[in-house]
UniProtKB/TrEMBL annotation:
Principal cellular location given in the protein's record: nucleus
This protein's encoding gene: TADA2A
Record localization: Nucleus
Keywords attached to this entry: Metal-binding, Nucleus, Transcription, Transcription regulation, Zinc, Zinc-finger
CDD domains: SANT, ZZ_ADA2
Domain (ZZ-type): residue spans on this chain: 1-45
Domain Myb-like: 50-94
Region Disordered, residue ranges: 287-312
Any single Pfam family the record assigns to this protein: ZZ_ADA2
Protein's recorded name: Transcriptional adapter
Domain SANT span(s) in chain numbering: 46-98
Residue ranges of domain HTH myb-type in the record: 50-98
């Protein structure tokens, strides 16, 4: 702490003593008590009689720590001067001091004189040189890549930043799938396409958008149905109900003829075809079939498949086990075919036999039995 004693004969490094050690004649290594000495203190004025050298240094450190202009913080750090005193003293002796101003001016002039010989004068022109239009240099300057017909930097390079964090994962709940299936197939396709943008527009706006398109689809379908009534000459809803009933009957008859043609194309024996027709007629009339089905080419039917030890048997119920035994189909293959038919039925809202045959590339008779079994058990519905 000031004041303290500095030995004038020891050093370097300099040897310092506090006043208490100096008065006791403390000696250490080469230092002797009879050496000449200096009294070190900063308790003397430098620029202003009311400011000591120690306060000048504290002011400069406070301005460096707190920043120029924050005089209240500077005064709080110094603890010996007020805010007004700090500002007035700093502005008078460190900013507006003509001695410091002349020194800075001399430094600036010396720096300009040093760089005067190396500076290159610039003279502006009305039209600076530019590369010719559509030249290789002009393309490079514009960042244009002719091979890709595109620029290195797009016009709005950050336009897609709102979509960069979207994750496309199949984690929708069963409730969402049920909500999707209540729409017609066309609206379901739109729902699936627009679902990835739900995060941007918000859930309420997204639901309004889907509902509005569902309403538009219903209105278009009703308009088309009314136009069909008008084309058929129908003018009231009573006649329209009769028309719909007859149309449904005709459609069912057409489906029966289509199914019959699908069966007949696989039957080559004419006698077997006639027997099949008579047997179907007895079944439709509620009678037991009187004509047994003749086996093709006289071959014996294969025995039921033994499912013991086959993989996937434990996943089947009793009816499914019986089906696999009769059609001689291993459980693993049956489960795979069943999953494919269920997925397609959920997507289409129904499934036809022809679609099932297109999905399952096995014997058509086995496909028909699987298709009928799944419909009978309620796993899928007819389209």
């Amino acid at each position: 702490m000031e004041p303290y004693i500095k030995c004038a004969e020891c050093g370097p490094p300099p040897f310092f003593l506090c006043l208490q050690c100096f008065t006791r004649g403390f000696e250490y290594k080469k230092h002797q008590s009879d050496h000449t000495y200096e009294i070190m203190t900063s308790d003397f004025p430098v620029l202003d009689p009311s400011w000591t050298a120690q306060e000048e240094m504290a002011l400069l450190e406070a301005v460096m720590d707190c920043g120029f202009g924050n005089w209240q913080d500077v005064a709080n750090q110094m603890c010996t001067k007020t805010k007004e005193e700090c500002e007035k003293h700093y502005m008078k002796h460190f900013i507006n001091n003509p001695l410091f101003a002349s020194t800075l001016l001399n430094l600036k002039q010396a720096e300009e004189a040093k760089t005067a010989d190396t500076a290159i004068p610039f003279q502006s022109t009305d039209d600076p040189p530019r590369p010719t239009f559509d030249s290789l240099l002009s393309r490079d300057m514009a960042g244009y890549m002719p091979a890709r017909a595109d620029f290195i930097e797009e016009f709005d390079n950050y336009a897609e930043w709102d979509l960069r964090d979207i994750d496309f994962v199949e984690d929708d709940s069963d409730i969402l799938h049920v909500m999707e299936r209540r729409y017609p197939k066309e609206v379901q396709d739109l729902y699936e396409t627009m679902r990835r943008f739900a995060r941007i527009v918000g859930p309420v706006e997204h639901d309004k958008f889907i509902e509005s398109h569902a309403l538009e689809f219903e209105l278009r379908r009703e308009i088309k149905r009314l136009q069909e009534y008008r084309t058929a000459g129908i003018t009231n809803f009573c006649s329209a109900r009769t028309y719909d009933h007859l149309k449904k009957t005709r459609e069912e008859e057409r489906l029966k003829r289509t199914m019959l043609s699908e069966v007949l194309q696989y039957i080559q024996d004419s006698s077997a075809c006639q027997q099949w027709l008579r047997r179907q007629a007895d079944i439709d009339s509620g009678l037991s079939p009187s004509v047994p089905m003749a086996s093709n080419s006289g071959r014996r039917s294969a025995p039921p498949l033994n499912l013991t030890g086959l993989p996937g048997t434990e996943k089947l119920n009793e009816k499914e086990k019986e089906l696999c035994q009769m059609v001689r189909l291993v459980p693993g293959a049956y489960l795979e075919y069943k999953s494919a038919l269920l997925n397609e039925c959920n997507k289409q809202g129904g499934l036809r036999l022809a679609q099932a045959r297109a999905l399952i590339k096995i014997d058509v008779n086995k496909t028909r039995k699987i298709y009928d079994f799944l419909i009978r058990e309620g796993y899928i519905t007819k389209a």
